[in-house]
């Protein structure tokens, strides 16, 4: 078994990962608030944890790993959208409008993350299904002297937990200076945070010992992780923006609710994302969602490649140049697999034959704090072959890293056409014709290959051939698409 090492945010060290129970490895990722499309930055923690889960399952077994990622479906932004729809004339109740919006958004989220090759977690709890557990935890914290009721609110008493600030490495007094905290006259301390808050008649709410209301954000993940993973589990994480206050508050309320349990052993945080060297922002015009990229024709595999090319603990810069380079590598990889005859049936044969094993260099790189860039460098060095058996370690490595979700669809990625001009309407048709030409050359049908090349060149298409990779091309602006008729048949 390969020794996995992960950088623990709490200790600020790279540590050997030792599961609490090797037969029951448990991890929790803070998921999205489902009020709108996931932007590109939202995808980074999903891909980091997807890679981690794949590695853990490779080492400990598929059934030995439990992965939880929640949906926050009770939030002021969700309420505001529901109220906007009702004001626009909908005759549905507020509760129905909220349910409609969250179902719609969760569907979008699933489709977008599926397109990036991210496997769905074992559990995807929705906050609204665990309000009872949140109320019970809140009442328990009051009983233990760690929370108090004030004007219909229940607040956590930060000073009651001496270790508050350990995760972020700051004292409570340091946090108060310059911290964005909700100022309220009923707080005993500025850093105290809300566990429960009252709901007006025009907002969703649940009955509780403190009146009709709804949970604060931080209590949600503590209640859901405890219900599904227990009070002590292996790994918790998310974007670095959640380190404080969300994760700091989770630790405080969970450790106080379950003294001695320890909550999460390892904390993993990914750094933030930029676009072309600048912070992603709507005001700068560089804000886009995962769906924006997919609709522009950027394959999910390419998005995944760019995201994983930068170590998760470093800021990531999304650029068009990186996307184009990633597309070239993905096409080369998949083209090599197509030439070797890969399909779902072939994978089954190779797995049954006992030759399906990822490269040691790839596994070792991933085990070293998820160094995906080093793992991909090992893939770049792998000598390609037309033999499916010889290519098995390469293909198994791609599957381990999540670059292949459907082995029967790799041909459509392999013929995207490296270097083709922008979003020309004929791009995919030309790529398909050139793919047919490459296939003809592979089976030594040179007459067909030459006929296709001549027709395209005569029509003004510039073709560039690279050994071991799909042909790349440039389409002129005045290209007549009718010349393609019959060429790929």
Can you describe what's shown?
It is a single chain. The chain has helices spanning 40-60, 76-87, 94-115, 131-143, 172-176, 217-229, 243-257, 290-295, 300-309, 320-339, 344-352, 360-367, 372-381, 388-400, 410-414, 427-442, 446-458; strands at residues 5-8, 13-16, 25-29, 65-69, 147-150, 153-156, 193-198, 213-215, 232-239, 263-270, 273-275, 278-279, 316-318, 462-464, 472-474. α4 (131-143) crosses α6, α9 crosses α10 (320-339) and α16 runs antiparallel to α17 (446-458). The protein is globular. The protein starts with a strand and ends in a 15-residue tail after the last strand. 43% of the residues lie in helices and 13% in strands. It has 17 helices and 15 strands. The strands form five sheets. It has a four-stranded parallel sheet, sandwiched between helices. It is an alpha/beta fold.
Which features characterize this protein?
alpha/beta; 4-stranded antiparallel β-sheet; 15 strands; single chain; 13% strand; 4-stranded parallel β-sheet; globular; 489 residues
Number of helices: 17
The largest sheet, given as strand count, sense and whether it forms a barrel, is: 4 strands, parallel
Number of strands: 15
Please tell me how large the radius of gyration is: 26 Å
* Structural class computed from helices and strand pairing: alpha/beta
Average pLDDT value?
89
Lateral strand order in the biggest sheet: 4-3-9-10
Shape: globular
Point out poorly predicted stretches: 417-422
The percentage of residues in β strands lies in 5-15%
Kindly, what is the distance between the CA atoms of the first and last residues, rounded to a whole number of angstroms? 49 Å
Helix content, binned percent: 40-55%
